[in-house]
Hints:
The protein is elongated. The chain has helices spanning about 1-20, 20-25, 30-60, 75-90, 110-125, 160-165, 185-195, 230-235, and strands at about 70, 95, 105-110, 135-140, 145-150, 200-205, 210-215. The protein is α+β, with helices and mostly antiparallel strands. A hairpin with a 3-residue loop joins strand 6 (about 200-205) and strand 7. Pfam families: HATPase_c, HisKA. Keywords: Kinase, Phosphoprotein, Transferase, Two-component regulatory system.
Amino acid sequence: MNHELRTPLNAIIGFATMLRDSEDYELGADQRVTYAEYILQSADLLLGHINTLLDVAALDSGKVELNSDVIDFSTLLNDAINRVLVRAEAAGVAIERLEGDADVLGWGDADRIGQATDHLLHTAVKMSEEGGKVLVRVSQTDKGWAEIAIRDEGDGLSNEELYEALEVFNETLRGLDRSWMGPGVGYAIAKTFVEMQGGRFSIESRLDEGTLVQIALPPPNIDVKPIEDSEQDETEQTMPERKNDAA
């Protein structure tokens, strides 16, 4: 993780220095704009890494507070898309929102489900090739649960890679020694934030086809309990069917 933190920070320092001394470098207006964009992209990447570290630390400590209320899933997804756009544009990845249900409401902690969605979108962009796209959709299940689906068209993961990605919090080494290659800890953080408030997390990945993740929270005024480890073991292997016209 040291490399992931230093690289964007060095880029920020380097390009900021060139902008400050633009006369010495004889930078034109277009070059200054380009370098400013590089700084914004690097700052966004660095902020994402820092937020991930903070989320991991909070989950490791077991001191994550939940403040449940009614959540507008359409607004939540729009906000998450806006937060990831800079990174997606820098990677040359398009985010396409498919038509879904209107007025989809769920019950849970908006901040935590927002963080889960952020991690899933960032991971989808990270797993995508330049020129690829990420499909997203909000819908309501037959039982009234509010659901967000996110699908990338990347290389996909094998069963072993998917297992390791979801079990990252069981690693012996902590903090900066964690594995950050591949999907990193994004799937594991999202799964934990969703299931700790009684939500549902499902993931399906196929090599050379990509990955589909679905997260769902119950409708308002439905009492649910956080999923225990034993229940997770029973439900983790149940993957949703992939639909050609859905995220």
